[in-house]
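=== RUN LOG ===
request id: a7f3
mode: sequence -> structure
chains: 1
length: 192
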Amino acid sequence: PDSELPTLAYTLSRRFGSDYQIAPEDVTQTVVRTFENVSHAMATQGAAITLRQSGAAFIEAFCSSAVPSTYLPLAILNYHEYLHLLHLTQECAFMPNVKEPKCDKDRLVRMRVALAAFRLYFRFGHVSDLAHHNQVHRAWRNALELDRMLQDLVLDVREAEQVLSQIHRTAEQERHDREAKAEQERQERDAK
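=== RESULT ===
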């Protein structure tokens, strides 16, 4: 029956076996069901589309036309964004170089530019004039937690800038204090 399609899609997308007791509220919150006989489910583990043949021409052609031309590109687009955000997140993890603060500053500038480029050229909040395509796109974004990943990355870059600025200010103050002390000691020696 059509009522089982969402649970089946949910189970398949997560690679769950029959041993799992699926929470119905999770299924209804995460499965996109724009048609009674077609359900889309997405997860970090994968995705599934379940459908029931109704004899309609649309359903007959769905797997050969709509899936490869619309739904597969949406999956690829969102997965590509996921991989890119993972890459940027990994770039954000580095140990400060107190001896060469310019390297850290340059790295942070590159990260800010990469984030700006990502937001301007790569991130798509809306992909189609058809509402159900946008629903599937948003479901992918939610399943891969793309908005949370981006928000965490922005906060990480901001925090790294603050921490590195403080480290470099402290190092600069210590250098200044050492030079001032050396100059004072030199003046005291010269005065003797």
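=== NOTES ===
The chain is about 70% helix and 10% strand.
The mean pLDDT is 88.
=== END ===
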